[in-house]
Amino acid sequence: MHDINFIRKNPIEFDNFIKQRGEKPCSEKILIIDQEKRKAQTHLQELLAERNLLSKKIGLLKSQNQESKEIINKVEILKNQISTLKELEKIKDDELQAILTRLPNIASKDVPIGFAEENNMEIKKWGNKPKFSFQPKRHYEIGEDSGLMNFDLASKISGSRFVILKGMLSKMERAIAQFMLDQHTIENGYTEFNVPILIKDQSLFGTGNLPKFAEDLFTAGENHWLIPTAEVPLTNLVRDQIVELNSLPIRVTSYTPCFRSEAGAAGKDTRGMLRQHQFSKVELVSITMPEQSDQELERMLSCAEKILQDLNIHYRVVTLCTGDMGFSAKKTYDIEVWLPGENSYREISSCSNCGDFQARRMNARFKRENNTIFVHTLNGSGLAVGRTLIAILENYQTEDGNVTIPEPLRKYLNNQTKLF
User: Fold this and answer.
1) Where in the chain is the domain with CATH 1.10.287.40?
2) Is domain 117-410 in CATH 3.40.50.300, yes or no?
3) pLDDT in tens, 258-273
4) Within the chain, which residue ranges are assigned CATH 3.30.930.10?
5) Which of 7, 47, 228, 307 counts the highest number of beta carbons within 10 A?
């Protein structure tokens, strides 16, 4: 949510920021509605004050056994006018919120300006691409050839964009998640939460998923939705709260299934596990003071990177441009892992600083020196578990069709060194 005071003081600057996010300038419309709302509020306060004054006069006249009928009639007229103004104020507030809640966050000044993937900025790479003496397979070829990955059966049960993992692949996915959770909780200081995967409208509104992106979500009836990511319940842990100053920064993590309709992905990645309706992810969320959030983003990125470094998988980091970032983000780093079977990089994590954008929607604040201030929220994948499994299959495949298990995962798999 945007600060209306900033728009009032900086309408041209606000329009320029919004244009960078691919939206049409709208400060003029916002300010007209805002002015109409404030005018109604001012008039309302005047009428309320007048009504209160007349009510006191009525009480005084009654105590003196004097006639007060004329004043009572005037109060009744004021009551109707007040009711009309309250309705007008609500109408204008609803109009204002309808615009503001659908506008994306303003990008940080160091974010590259652009509207397509080619405008993203690569900032670093880590590790080396593996070399093979054979033509590397794609993950689904390895999985299907081994009989441990079944898309046809999943489609029969649930439809397209689902997969069934069996035996060692199922165990490896669980091992990956456990490895990530251990790293983030033991090494990186995150507190693990087990959160609901069914959430209400208000929780999705708080993180910016509603009202604009309802088509990307799965509904579950009775005002419930399936979570698109654990970012939603984790960030909402501080909704409608004044957080204790000495508790910041708050760092939390959770391993959950995630559900996305992939409404805008028709025809994309129809083979394999890359783009599924259901997938698992270890999510990282931080709640910070405003002056901490830039540094916290760098810290979160390094925590996510360390998972791939420990697994010795080559990746690169890119800063997303203004038009390619998520709705609530002011700055986003994507970690893109190398997939030799595809001969391309693929996103495996997005780490975003949302500033106070989500906090304003959630009314999440802290107190400092008698001032109430909105917190800053951050979120990141630490990592997408299914895509990490894909990366391991493709980067650790062997010529005989097997897969070497990365050393950090072996303790979770009875010290097994090969997939099968």
Assistant:
1) 4-100
2) no
3) 999 986 666 677 789 9
4) 117-410
5) 307
Structure tokens at 393: 């299959």
Nearest-angstrom CA–CA distance, 169 and 416: 13
Task: Tell me the pLDDT band of 75, cut-offs 50, 70 and 90.
Answer: confident
d(CA 192, CA 190): 6
Q: Which two tokens stand for residue 6?
A: 């900033």
The predicted model gives 89-109 an average pLDDT of 96
Active site residue ranges: 260, 275, 347, 350, 387
Looking at domain 4-100, its CATH class is mainly alpha
Pairwise CA distance, residues 420 & 410, whole Å? 13
Residues 6+ apart with CB under 8 A from 193: 233, 234, 237, 252, 253, 254
Both tokens assigned to 389: 């499994």
Three-state secondary structure string covering the chain: CCCHHHHHHCHHHHHHHHHHCCCCCCHHHHHHHHHHHHHHHHHHHHHHHHHHHHHHHHHHHHHCCCCCHHHHHHHHHHHHHHHHHHHHHHHHHHHHHHHHCCCCCCCCCCCCCCCCHHHCEEEEEECCCCCCCCCCCCHHHHHHHHCCEEHHHHHHHHCCCCCEECHHHHHHHHHHHHHHHHHHHHHCCCEECCCCCEEEHHHHHHHCCCCCCHHHCEEEECCEEECCCCHHHHHHHHCCCEECHHHCCEEEEEEEEEECCCCCCCCCCCCCCCCCCEEEEEEEEEEECHHHHHHHHHHHHHHHHHHHHHHCCCEEEEECCCCCCCCCCCEEEEEEEEECCCCEEEEEEEEEECCCHHHHHHCCEEEECCEEEECEEEEEEEEEHHHHHHHHHHHCECCCCCEECCHHHHCCCCCCCECC
